[in-house]
C-alpha cells in the first residue's frame, strides 16, 4: 500500500482564494481586514514564520502591521503595544509570534490581547469557549488539521483518534475538535506507556510531539489517516539541515491510507486558517 498524500499546499490555496474574495467584499463595504504581527527578538525560525504570514496577508489584500521589537524589549513595553493595537479600529487580529524571550511572561501577553482580536485562539476565553464548543476563534493549526481531514473525506463519527502530544497549542485543542466531530480520542505524551499500542489502534493519528521521525510505520494501523504536525530540522547525517516531521514518512507511507507530508502538509493550512480567523474578526467588527 502507498498512502494518498494530503496536499496542504493545494488546499490552502483554495482557502486563501476564498479568503481574498471575502476580504475584498468587506473592503468594498468599508472595512478592510487588518492583522498585526509582533515579533520580539531575532529568532531565524520565527522570522521565517512571520514573513510567510505577512506575505499571505498581502496576497489576500489583508492590511498588515508588522512590529519587530528587539530581544531586550521589556514586558511592559510589549503589553503597552498590544493595548494600542487592541484599541486600533484598523486592526482586527493580533498575533504575537511565540516563543518570546525568557524575561517575558507568554501567558500574560496572550491574556492581554483582546479576545475579539485573538486570531491565534490562545486566549483563555477562546480556550474555554473551545471546551464548551463556542469559541470566538479556533487555534489555527488544529483548525487546519480539521479542514484537511474534512477535505480527505475522513469519517470522524465513531472513529478512533489518537493524538501524540498534549500542548495547549495543538494537542489539547485538537482533541476537543475531534471529540466534537464524534471521534473517540486518546491523548498520548512523553509518559505514555507502550505508545505503539495506542497508535496502532488509531483510524486517525495526529503526531504533534516535536520529535523527529518518532512515529514509524510499524506503529501505524494499516489504512489509517496520519497527520504530521511536527516540523523539525535534521541535525546529523546525510540529510542534515533538511526538514522532517514527527512521522518517519518513508516507512509510514507504505502503511497509512493517507498522510500529510512535511513540509507541505499542515504548515500551509495553519497560515490559511489564520487568514480565515482574521477575516472573520473583521466581519464581526463590521457587524
UniProtKB/TrEMBL annotation:
Q: Name all Tetrahydrofolate dehydrogenase/cyclohydrolase NAD(P)-binding domain ranges.
A: 139-284
Query: How is the quaternary structure described?
Result: Homodimer.
Domain spans labelled Tetrahydrofolate dehydrogenase/cyclohydrolase catalytic: 6-120
Q: Which organism is it from?
A: Zeimonas arvi
Against NCBIfam families, the record matches this protein to: PRK10792.1, PRK14186.1, PRK14189.1
Q: Which processes are annotated in GO (biological process)?
A: L-histidine biosynthetic process; methionine biosynthetic process; purine nucleotide biosynthetic process; tetrahydrofolate interconversion
- The highest taxon in the source lineage is Bacteria
Q: Which Pfam families match?
A: THF_DHG_CYH, THF_DHG_CYH_C
What the record says about family reads: Belongs to the tetrahydrofolate dehydrogenase/cyclohydrolase family.
Q: Which reaction does it catalyse?
A: (6R)-5,10-methylene-5,6,7,8-tetrahydrofolate + NADP(+) = (6R)-5,10-methenyltetrahydrofolate + NADPH; (6R)-5,10-methenyltetrahydrofolate + H2O = (6R)-10-formyltetrahydrofolate + H(+)
Q: What is this protein called?
A: Bifunctional protein FolD
Q: In which pathway does this enzyme or protein participate? A: One-carbon metabolism; tetrahydrofolate interconversion
Gene3D superfamilies associated with the record: Leucine Dehydrogenase, chain A, domain 1, NAD(P)-binding Rossmann-like Domain
Q: Please spell out the taxonomic lineage of the organism that makes this protein.
A: Bacteria, Pseudomonadati, Pseudomonadota, Betaproteobacteria, Burkholderiales
Q: What is its EC number?
A: 1.5.1.5, 3.5.4.9
Q: Which UniProt keywords apply?
A: Amino-acid biosynthesis, Histidine biosynthesis, Hydrolase, Methionine biosynthesis, Multifunctional enzyme, NADP, One-carbon metabolism, Oxidoreductase, Purine biosynthesis
GO MF assignments:
methenyltetrahydrofolate cyclohydrolase activity; methylenetetrahydrofolate dehydrogenase (NADP+) activity
Gene Ontology CC: cytosol
The record's section on InterPro entries has: Aminoacid_DH-like_N_sf, NAD(P)-bd_dom_sf, THF_DH/CycHdrlase, THF_DH/CycHdrlase_cat_dom, THF_DH/CycHdrlase_CS, THF_DH/CycHdrlase_NAD-bd_dom
Please describe what this protein does. Answer: Catalyzes the oxidation of 5,10-methylenetetrahydrofolate to 5,10-methenyltetrahydrofolate and then the hydrolysis of 5,10-methenyltetrahydrofolate to 10-formyltetrahydrofolate.
